[in-house]
Amino acid sequence: MDERAFDLAGEAEEKQRQQGVANRVQYCGVSALECGECGEGIPEKRRLAIPGCQLCVDCQQLRERRV
Q1: Which domain covers residue 12, as residue numbers?
Q2: How many domains does the chain have?
Q3: Would the N or C end of the chain have less CB density within 10 A of its end CB?
Q4: pLDDT digits (tens, 9 = 90+) for 5-53
């Protein structure tokens, strides 16, 4: 492969990385005390780490796998 191919691959990778950062979910607001899906309590550490979270870790992981 020539140098130009490496440059193009690097540029494509950087563009994809920037799109991923721009598309990330940004949380804000007040976190729920209980999960909106299963009703289990959301630990305080999670509520503080992710302001505005509405789901427990397990339900959030399930939702992300479906998408």
Answers
A1: 3-66
A2: 1
A3: C
A4: 888 888 889 988 888 777 666 667 899 999 999 999 999 999 999 999 9
